[in-house]
Design a protein that fits this description.
Helix content of chain A: 25-40%
Strand content of chain B: 15-25%
Largest sheet of chain A: 6 strands, mixed
Largest sheet of chain B: 8 strands, mixed
Distance between the termini of chain B: 33 Å
Shape of chain A: globular
Radius of gyration of chain A: 19 Å
Oligomer: heterodimer
Order of helices and strands of chain A: EEEHEEHEHHHHEHEHEEHH
Number of strands of chain A: 10
Largest interface: A-B, 40 and 46 residues
Order of helices and strands of chain B: EEEHEEHEHHHHHEHEHEEHHEE
Chain lengths: 271, 319
């Protein structure tokens, strides 16, 4: 893939937080990371708490300070701008957060939640067009029939349904890149696959790029085209799931592989 | 003698203050010999945590408990309203929860919290108590100097170690663990599980582990009981249940759990949602989501012996 096709291009990214004088010598949260995400690609960022994976998402979204290096979204360099210009530049990157119980405003209806990004980004003008688009998106994320869900509020939905609303709201901003930060870790194992298959389908059918942040190596292995394993702000292993599983020599990554689902060595039988 | 005997445990809780009580746990029965470990598995809202809380005597006063729970030969509910456990029996039970920040008192030093859990006769002797606190901290892999630390000074893994030390302080014979590693990172989880494994073996502790993680339960437990709609629907040796599941629900839970060799096509979700416990109907609670449901499922299946396991499913067949 040529560089021109990359949705997201990160080069030598360093993220360092201002933590006060006491922590002046603290190592950066992200210590020089480079990678790309192309259209139609699902890339996994795997690591434990504090490895720097969410700081990378923060740097893309303008929520974490970029110390040095560069983040390019659709070829445009982010940073050094403010206000409406930033909002315009960053719109192609949208976030789906971990906790669908926290991230949705409990007072708003499902339709209002999905319409809000359209209003913020000035995408669909006119009440009726927004409402029609919201129904389309609810249908696309599998909340069917959409009009049954439109007037509900978050507390009337299950965890999996709430996460689908979060995804619909992210799609409303018409992103080229979706950042999914632990999108299924708060959900029951029985509904996780539904959300992951939905993300996978969006990636393939809409040619969207997805950066999935997760601590769950088996899930990343199954769903991602490529993955990067992070530790202490560095990428310690990267490649396709097969390369990571069979070839990586990084001791930490091997330890993670060995620690994954210890009791289930073999693939479960079909029902 | 069994450390734990649970016989036809039923728990009813009034969910709305004016509504009728809802039965959360229905006819759960199992027993544990010293050193034996049982994993309670299932989705949120299937009754596994309520079962654990009923055994621990930690249900709220609004709950009504039926059936029999006996710990180290002492009946827990005889003549007690709300299922409260007398202090005498409670010290045979240690409990470890998921959220260590909630389980620990934030304004009390770790050492003081450990002392609170010691048996009265040990606590009465200051020197003995101090030695015992040091010993407990060392056993869980923490430096005795951390007795002076407050919970916020510890990492998540260290806090869970401290919680395990507190659970062991009263020299229990039964350990109840509710998602003890869910909030932890993979490698920290692995170390905590190894620690629990070693301690439980050394102390011959019987364990009830509540988890949504079938892999963890298969690794750590001898036996697995899968709960659905408040009932145990499959129970047997861990290797049997996860190796060749008989209940369609168990099979689907397994298929939903990715392993290092799963491809995305192999990982499925279970359609629908767990049943509303207020309105279970008279048939099999899983039938509305079950790929193998048939007419016969309109009647509720009882647990029956099949091969080496017990299963509550009309459609389950011998392998």
């Amino acid at each position: 893939m040529s560089a021109g096709e990359q949705l997201l291009s990160i080069r030598n990214l360093v993220v360092r937080y201002q933590a006060g004088r006491r922590h002046a010598g603290a190592p950066p949260a992200v210590a020089g990371v480079s990678f790309d995400v192309g259209a139609g690609e699902l890339v996994g960022l795997v690591g434990e708490s504090g490895s720097g994976k969410s700081s990378i998402a923060g740097a893309i979204l303008g929520l974490a300070p970029v110390g040095s290096g560069e983040v390019r979204l659709l070829g445009q360099r982010l940073g050094g701008r403010s206000g409406a210009a930033v909002r315009r530049l960053r719109r192609p990157a949208q976030l789906v957060m971990q906790d669908p119980f926290d991230s949705l405003n409990p007072h708003m209806t499902v339709t209002a939640l999905v319409e809000e990004p359209m209003i913020v980004h000035g995408l669909e003008r006119g009440r009726e067009r927004r409402a029609a688009r919201a129904l389309e998106l609810l249908d696309a994320v599998g909340l069917r029939p959409a009009h049954d869900f439109a007037a509900r509020r978050p507390h009337e939905l299950s965890g999996g349904q709430r996460q689908r609303v979060s995804i619909a709201a992210a799609l409303a901003a018409e992103p080229a890149l979706l950042i999914a930060d632990e999108p299924v870790s708060m959900l029951d194992v029985s509904v996780r696959a539904g959300i992951l298959h939905l993300l996978d389908a969006m990636c393939r059918e809409r040619r969207m790029g997805i950066l999935m942040i997760t601590h769950d190596l088996p899930t990343a292995m199954a769903f991602c085209d490529r993955l990067l394993v992070m530790r202490h702000g560095h990428v310690v292993a990267s490649g396709t799931p097969g390369e990571i599983r069979d070839q990586t020599l990084d001791a930490y990554t091997r330890e993670l592989i060995n620690a994954a689902s210890p009791g289930l060595g073999v693939a479960p039988q079909e029902t | 003698m069994n450390v734990l005997e649970v016989e036809r445990l039923n728990v009813e809780v009034a969910v709305a203050h004016d509504g009728p009580p809802t039965r959360i746990v229905r006819d759960a029965s199992f027993s544990l010999a010293p050193g034996q470990r049982l994993g309670l598995i299932g989705e949120s809202g299937c009754g596994k945590t309520t079962t654990l809380l009923a055994i621990a005597g930690l249900l709220s006063a609004s709950a009504t408990v039926g059936g029999r729970v006996s710990i180290a030969g002492v009946d827990q509910f005889s003549g007690i309203a709300g299922g409260r456990i007398p202090a005498l029996a409670r010290r045979d039970v240690g409990v470890v929860f998921q959220g260590t920040m909630n389980a620990l008192n934030p304004v009390q030093r770790i050492g003081a919290q450990l002392r609170e859990g010691l048996r009265a006769e040990v606590r009465a002797d200051a020197q003995l108590a101090r030695a015992r606190v040091d010993d407990l901290l060392e056993r869980v892999g923490l430096s005795p100097t951390l007795a002076r630390a407050y919970p916020h000074e510890l990492s998540g893994g260290m806090r869970q170690r401290a919680c395990i030390a507190i659970a062991l302080a009263g020299e229990p014979r039964l350990l109840l663990a509710d998602e003890p590693t869910t909030a932890l990172d993979t490698l920290v989880e692995q170390r905590i599980v190894a620690l629990l494994d070693e301690l439980c073996r050394e102390l011959q502790l019987a364990v009830v582990l509540v988890s949504h993680d079938l892999g963890l339960a298969a690794h750590f437990c001898d036996e697995i009981a899968v709960m659905y709609g408040g009932r145990i629907v499959e129970r047997g040796a861990a290797a049997e249940v996860t190796g060749a599941p008989h209940h369609p629900y168990t099979a689907l839970l397994l298929a939903a759990t990715p392993t290092m060799t799963s491809t995305k096509g192999q990982i499925v979700s279970i359609p629908g949602a767990p049943p509303d416990l207020r309105d279970l109907g008279s048939g099999c609670a899983f039938a509305p989501r079950c790929p193998r449901a048939a007419d016969v499922c309109a009647a509720r299946p009882e647990l029956r012996e099949l091969d080496a396991v017990q299963v509550a499913c009309h459609r389950a067949v011998s392998r």
